[in-house]
Design a protein that fits this description.
34% helix; alpha+beta; single chain; 2 helices; elongated
């Protein structure tokens, strides 16, 4: 029996684990210092009958603060479940989006027939940062519809559609962009005919 794979599941798991490790690495010295301080105060309060009454509330407060710090830094944040609706709204002006793809860095490429994304002129091809904002460095400006888009393993971006130029350079219906959005000048299949 074959089960379809979902490449985003390992990435989410890896990112969650990485986030947890980074949080632990950043907060470990702080947590260790707080723990030692609470431990010292607790031992002092226990060893001195007169000090118990005056130190107990402060020791309890520090113990609660330590627990809260551990939970705040070490408990991973909630992740959206597969199939949950993402609140992203790119506010397109134009007809439609025909294709999307996600780059390894989490940026989302939109392809289709439109003239504006998030209030900024972007003709038929745009890229959003992982946080949903427009990538201002990416503007290939194809002069016709972009029907398909994919990212190659080396990070370069292939687009296909009914355009005849990309970045003011002749590219008939098929073009390849470098990962930074510049045109790959070596790649030019010069396709002819209707898409």
């Amino acid at each position: 029996m074959h089960f379809p794979s979902n490449p985003s599941i390992p990435q989410v798991t890896f990112l969650s684990a990485l986030t947890l490790l980074l949080r632990a690495a950043v907060c470990f010295p702080l947590l260790a210092a707080m723990f030692l301080r609470v431990r010292t105060m607790a031992l002092a309060a226990l060893s001195s009958p007169a000090g118990r009454a005056s130190r107990q509330p402060r020791t309890q407060f520090l113990a609660v603060a330590l627990t809260a710090a551990v939970l705040a830094f070490l408990v991973p944040t909630a992740q959206a479940a597969a199939g949950d609706l993402d609140p992203l709204n790119p506010t397109l002006v134009g007809n439609y989006v025909l294709a999307t793809t996600v780059q390894p860095d989490g940026k989302l490429i939109l392809a289709g027939k439109f003239t504006s994304v998030l209030g900024v002129t972007r003709n038929n091809l745009a890229r959003l940062n992982a946080d949903g904002t427009l990538d201002s460095t990416f503007n290939p400006n194809p002069n016709g519809d972009v029907n398909s888009v994919t990212v190659q393993p080396d990070g370069r971006i292939l687009i296909g559609g009914s355009f005849s130029s990309v970045i003011s350079t002749t590219r008939n219906r098929i073009a390849r962009l470098n990962a930074d959005g510049t045109l790959d000048t070596v790649f030019n299949p010069n396709a002819n005919g209707a898409p």
